[in-house]
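User: quick one, sequence for these C-alpha cells?
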C-alpha cells in the first residue's frame, strides 16, 4: 500500500517535471525508467508510465520546459530499453518522432532492431498491445 502511494505521488508529480532542476530531473527519469525495467509497475500503471515517457519524448528537445520533458523521457527510456521488444506498437510510436530520428539515430536504429527481433520471435505475449490508441494516446 505504501509503494502504491509512492507510485501515485510520482505520477502526480509528472506535471511538474518541467520545473525540476537538471539533477533532480535526471534522478526522477532514471527512477521512472527503472520502475518499468524491473517490472515494479504493471497493467494500468505500466500503461500510464509508458504513456508519460512517450509524451515526454514527443516534446521538442532544447531549452525550456519542453526540453526538460524530452530529457526526462530520454533518461527514463534509457533505463528500460531492454524491455522495448515486448511492446512493438509502442516502439513504432517512438521511431516516428522526427527529432528523435534526427538527434538520436542510433537509439532509433536500436529500437527498430528490437521491433524486428520481436517480429521474428513471434513475441507471444509481446504483441504490442499497449493501452494506447493508434496515435499513441491513452
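Assistant:
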Amino acid at each position: 500500500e505504501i509503494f502504491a502511494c509512492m507510485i501515485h505521488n510520482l505520477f502526480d508529480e509528472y506535471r511538474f517535471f518541467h520545473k525540476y532542476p537538471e539533477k533532480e530531473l535526471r534522478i526522477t527519469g532514471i527512477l521512472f525508467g527503472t520502475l518499468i525495467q524491473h517490472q515494479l509497475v504493471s497493467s494500468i500503471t505500466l500503461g500510464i508510465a509508458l504513456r508519460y515517457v512517450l509524451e515526454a519524448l514527443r516534446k521538442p528537445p532544447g531549452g525550456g520546459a519542453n526540453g526538460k520533458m524530452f530529457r526526462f523521457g530520454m533518461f527514463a527510456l534509457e533505463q528500460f530499453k531492454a524491455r522495448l521488444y515486448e511492446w512493438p506498437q509502442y516502439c513504432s510510436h517512438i521511431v516516428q518522432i522526427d527529432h528523435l530520428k534526427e538527434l538520436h539515430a542510433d537509439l532509433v536504429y536500436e529500437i527498430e532492431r528490437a521491433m524486428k527481433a520481436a517480429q521474428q520471435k513471434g513475441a507471444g505475449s509481446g504483441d504490442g498491445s499497449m493501452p494506447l490508441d493508434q496515435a499513441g494516446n491513452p
